[in-house]
Design a protein that fits this description.
By secondary structure, the chain is of the alpha+beta class. The protein is 39% helix and 24% strand. The structure holds guanosine-5'-diphosphate and manganese (II) ion (MN). Guanosine-5'-diphosphate binds next to strand 2, helix 3, strand 3, strand 7 and strand 10.
Length: 384
């Protein structure tokens, strides 16, 4: 589960990690009020669940209250990487001397939590990891012993933070406690700022919480804002249909999570890009089939649909009837390719073919066809 920067900073404060004085507003006038009250330069920051807000124009420095008003007005109501910004965090600007990266996450390979510290802060850490991995210092935490003082000291020396060693130690220990106590899978400060006054401060805050541990954190559950999720995912959640939106143009539907994941891989291998993951589950009723197709086709990027059914308890002919009916009633006109296997496969295939549907001989062929058809459909759409 993702939470917002302002929510994460509230948690930071609770753990004694220094963050700038701030307030969250939904109205540009309130941003001006805050800037007036503090009498300092402020920074206006979009509160949406996307990374790299700085580069995307979601973070603006304002020298005075009028500028704060203007910046907040510019950011509020705008889309940032597809999400509408309905609130901004207004903070007293920090006088930045240097930006660091500090994060704790789970490292599956070593089966430990790992601390990462880098002098290349403020930028995309994935980029640093890819280009100059030697610039990220790592400390694997032994779960039995926790963080040791000498390890922290060594880390701070490596990152040229020895002048702020005590403060850094407090930062890291607090962050680790926060990470453990809240069942986080990531706690990240990027940038961790060394101010012109020689203090350390969290410039940004990112916390990911383990969904499977939410039952232990009823208080944190309320931080989740369904409203901010993708509208199609919301619709799917209402109907209890496992759906994840992806960024391609080929809609995918199958019965069984493993089958759907394989289908995604097959489409990718043929050079296509899946638009979603959707698992219709076993024994899919015609009602559920229809709802699923309705959800898939809410995505306006779609150029084709791949339906992959494995008949076990679900009979292929039953599934075929439901799918045909749903496609007709939803007036779906884009290419649909089917793959069927298992119980009553032949009967199902005949039903589809009688209606003029394309049925692949196997998963490979069906994937190839849907990619080809979707590309052609896209071409036709672009011409018109
Ligand atoms: P992100 O792009 O979504 O990670 O947003 P951040 O909160 O990390 O901000 C991106 C960048 O904006 C930072 O790395 C800073 O360079 C700059 N920035 C953010 N807050 C301040 C501030 O208070 N003062 C100054 N001078 N720059 C800031
Ligand atoms: Mn950041």
């Amino acid at each position: 589960m993702k939470i917002h920067e302002y929510q994460a900073k509230d948690i930071f404060k609770h753990y004694g990690i220094p963050v700038p004085v701030s307030c969250v507003v939904k109205d540009a006038h309130r941003a001006r009020d805050f800037a007036e009250k503090t009498g300092k330069k402020v920074v206006v920051k979009a509160q949406v669940h996307v990374g790299g807000r700085g580069k995307a124009g979601g973070i603006k420095l304002a020298d005075n209250p009028d500028e704060a008003f203007r910046s907040a007005g510019e950011i509020l109501g705008k889309r940032l990487k597809g999400l509408i910004v309905d609130k901004v965090l207004v903070e007293e600007a920090i006088n930045i001397k240097k930006e660091y990266y500090l994060g704790i996450t789970m490292d599956r390979k070593s089966r430990k939590n790992v601390v990462m510290l880098s002098t290349e802060g403020g930028v995309d850490i994935e980029e640093v990891a890819a280009r100059t991995p030697e610039k990220i210092e790592k400390l694997y935490i032994d779960p039995a012993f926790g963080l040791k003082d000498f390890e922290i000291k060594k880390l701070s020396v490596k990152a040229n933070l020895s002048k702020s060693a005590r403060e850094f130690s407090h930062f890291l220990k607090s962050l680790y406690r926060l990470y453990l106590e809240n069942d986080a899978t990531l706690a990240e400060i990027n940038p961790l700022i060394l101010t012109g006054e020689g203090k350390l401060m969290a410039g940004d805050a990112k916390i990911l919480l383990d969904d499977n541990a939410m039952f232990r954190h009823k208080d944190l559950e309320t931080l989740q804002e369904i409203a901010e999720d993708d509208p199609i995912e919301q619709e799917a959640r209402k109907s209890n249909i496992p759906y994840v939106r992806l960024d391609g143009d080929i809609g995918i539907m199958g019965n069984g999570a493993g089958l759907v994941m394989t289908t995604l891989d097959m489409v990718k291998r043929e050079g296509g890009n899946p638009a979603n993951f959707l698992d219709i589950g076993g024994g899919g009723s015609s009602e559920k089939t229809k709802k699923s197709l309705e959800i898939i086709t809410m995505d306006k990027n779609l150029n084709g649909i791949f339906i992959n059914i494995f008949g076990g308890i679900t009979r292929c002919d039953e599934a075929a009837k439901g799918i045909i009916e749903a496609i007709k009633s939803l007036h779906i006109s884009m290419p649909v390719v089917i793959r069927l296997a298992g119980t009553r496969e032949e009967e199902g295939r005949r039903l589809f073919e009688a209606e003029g549907f394309e049925v692949g001989r196997d998963m490979n062929e069906a994937a190839k066809k849907v990619v080809e058809f979707a590309a052609a459909y896209k071409g036709r759409r672009e011409k018109n």
